[in-house]
## 1
Amino acid sequence: MFAQLSSSFSRSRLISSFFVGSICALTALSAQAYERIVAMSPDVADIIVALGATDKLVGKDATNSHPALKDVPKVGMHRNITAESVLAVKPDLVLGSYMVQPVSVYQRLNDLNVKAANVAPKEGVDYFANSIKATGIYIGNRSEAAQLADHWSQDMQPLAKTGKRYILSYDGRIVAGKGTVGDELICRAGGINAANVSGLKPMSREGWLPSLM
């Protein structure tokens, strides 16, 4: 009888030790959250700001003009970015989207032992909510990201047409033409995309006015 009790007690201690160890391991993993993040594309940087993790950004794409990121170092332009320029700010996590070129930079950074992930591999409004959630998981703001993604999806319901003409540009040089996310955003807002081009194309500001008339 004593031997059975002793054996049961030993098994109980072993099970308790296992659960305690598992909890400690999970706590340790949570404590190892990324603290030095580079956003290689402006869309991902804006998500990080919206999720309240601006203080973790140590590098951004040169076209991002968000006021909250005015003091964050630029690591190059997303359309032609290099691993070396990103590594210069010593990140422990690098995030970007389909906008980043060359796409091989993600693998290049991972090969150099810096975690890099394309959180938005496809262009499209319908994919953006998943991009928000993926970014939230990486930066440790999973619940906030889920709420933001739901809010985004609700706000993307098409509005009544207004007949107003718009031009959308990230940097004042490249405009969002037909078939782009910018084009879809304008249409869902009830407007008309005045950029009479397909894809992302350069357009001088002098060319904007006739398009808007």
Note: The helical segments are 2-31, 42-50, 83-87, 105-111, 125-139, 142-155, 181-188, 205-212.
## 2
Amino acid sequence: MRRLFAVVALLAGFLLVPTRSDAAVVNVAPWATATASYTSPWENVAAINDGVDPSRSNDLRNRRWGTWPQAGEQWALLTWPSAQTISSAQVYFFDDGGGVREPVSWRLQSWDGAAYADIPAAYPVTVDGYVTASFPAVTTTRLRIVLESGKAAVGLLEVKAFADTAAAQSGWNPPAALVTPLDEVWRHTESGDRDPYGFRNFGWDQIMANGGSINYCVRWDSPAPVSAELRDRIHAALGRSFGKWMNVMAGHDGWPYAEVPVKVVGWAVRDRATLQWDDDSVDVYVGDMRENAPQCAEPCGRFFNQSGAYPDCPGGASHHYDMSLWLTAGMDGGAGGDWGQRVGSEYLVDNLGSDDIHILLHEIGHGFGLDDFYDWTPTGQCCFLMKAGTATSITEFDAWMLRDLWRHLKSRYGY
């Protein structure tokens, strides 16, 4: 969709470059693909590694994996494209007090290339919190969580698998068939209207300035009411979508973060009554208008303060936002850039349960500098997310385009 960036002279801000470490034990579960022995039609196995920490075992706000009405031995499987060296795992059991209960027992299995083998460890069972299993490191491409049920079905809310990724970093090694089209894309980027080397407000810059995270503010340009539950589902969907791009960076070419947390710090609305909650979990901006739409406070926005200082932000720098999620009633398509993403409010709400909210994913790609492909196509490529209308998820070519941007820009962050 459309790409909108500020055409202004930018000041280089103070940059927080993360400290390198010889050890990098991180949760690699979000990098994996999740499958299962059985999934209830209304549940989603992708919930188990979406990076959302549950509030309790009967979490009603976020996605879950459950097997009702199937009982007995059930399993969920994490599969990685390359081997991971894992030394511990955490699981959070789904228990609704009725048809889905915590298991009688559980265990982990690793794939040895020919069969699954049990991993010896202590496997505690409890609800309303993570349980941890630690064991001598195993190297595998598949980790299976096997649950033994009682009379009820079983399920999981979240799984974390911890691996030492320090030795697992890969360099620039795209598939041979992608070398030429990737070079074409970069040459096209260099010849564009915006100098990629001089522009200093890409998503890369924002993440690095924060030390590995990103903040958002939601511009709710709709009269539809927003409950606390809907708010939290929107936050979770944004985090999952942003995380899909970050997952393809993890472990590649010196990228320093296994996960990039997304925090929504504020909402902007025309009328406070639209927001049907009274907690103080986010800042609320009422009646501040820009482009005839609610606007989060400009003194708190990085787009307006690219020096990285927020002296006039009411809550201070911790309440600043790097990007906006602008949700507009009745809008088709989308727009994206260093300022954030704009999509239809109805479109997003209707797709909160989808694994791939493809318009939002496409617009997030623009925030990192990925271009549109309306008038040309790289050699040998036909269908990929950034070529609007040809794919609905991040493809291998999209992933390597993002990695190529990092390859060309990482030196300015000391990598």
Note: The first strand starts at residue 2 and ends at 3.
## 3
Amino acid sequence: MRPGATLPRSPAPDRAPARDRGDVVVLAVEAALLAAAVAVGAVLNHRGVGLHADAAPLYASWRPHLGWGTPAALLVAGVVLGPGLRWARTARWGPLLGAGYLAAVAWTLALALVDGWSAGLTRRLTPQAEYLHEVPGVTDVRRMLAGFTDRILDFQPDSWSTHTAGHPPGALLFFVGLDRVGLGGGTAAALACVLVGASIVVSVPLALRALGAGEATRAVLPFLVLLPGAVWVGASADGVFTGVVAAGLALLAVRGPATALAGGLLLGVALHLSYGFVLVGPLALAVLALRPSGRRGALLAGAAGVGAVVVAFTLAGFQWWQGYDRVVERYYQGWAADRPYGYWVWANLAAVLLSAGPVVGPALRRTLLAARAGWRGTARAGAAESAASAPAVGASGRVAGRLVGGLLAHRWAVAPASRVRLLGPTVLLPAAAALAVIGADLSGMSKAEVERIWLPFAVWLLVAAAHLPAPARRWWLAAQALTALTVNHLLFTVS
């Protein structure tokens, strides 16, 4: 098949039925899952089971409230749902990304300010369990890195605080760096999380466009702007993690070995922000496979970037694999020893629904349908094009053409990698993100708090929204905004 050939992957979204019984069924399943997680969580908390989450499946406490961020959040949602959606269909690329980023920042800040300036931003990252607690004690970065692993385990005089111990030192270094350039304190740290986290609205569309899904970007971008997970982006370090991962993947997608190297460097940094980002691997491989050209060179450049960061940290005294080994032990020194796997292994998925939004289930269902149609379509198109590519001259030529075409069709049938690649980014990227979520869930290393921990994967799940029919998108986007507003006004979330 010709490189770059375009095949029909699914019926055009605009012509798909806006109301689909399958979408309603999936939405009902989502509602049942969430209701079960809330009800079972309440019963387990009442019985004294160690969920350590008052509003399970979310790590939050029940506290219905309003704030002066409430009208601002309603205003942002109204603008995006009204003129924003219409403008996104025709806007030029640069202004669209710029306006989308500003809207995402406004949305995230408005949600944070529902809790007030102090509780929602300034004091969000200053409790003892957070990174800022450790920043004043880091006077020598090299010494800190060399001794980092020794301080991971709990019940020592100099044990790291919870978040610092649970992550590689890159997370602490980010806030140390802010402090060194004069941006210390809770307010600057919280704003940095918001500004970096909102950059997904630029990174994810850039990746999609570079991978040949430019039109899908216009459908996906509003869902990134009104991300329900913005409740946790503003403000937690996971907002920074999400932005770094998305930027690294976007750079891998853009043509040229230099950008792939830069993407690898960022993903290497991401590995030193969270141990769980080994699960970004499927997403990175999907991006590399979807590149229109230079896949081998990009793979080598990206791997070199990741390796360079790993080597740099190792030479500085921190060995990632040793840190991970200690973190597993520290994990079970704390609440993880009490939190029942039998509850969280499925309740985590309910938490993801509140972070990524209710659109995820129906969008993934439509993505699965598009993948099935695309898989069959590539086989038919490959066979047809292979047969057509053989010249036919006279009767003997027609026979030869059919024989050659059949052989080429057989070759196509045994080349599934090419068929997978031709499914496109709006199928493969959500699939890779879903695979990462499933792996993280089954590992047992993420019992609770996944509404923020899995944000770097949740934003790529939303790429599946490209398969929603155009008439239905406004309603799904309204449901996304309503989810964020409901969570933020009924609960006081914890970073």
Note: Strands lie at 60-62, 491-493.
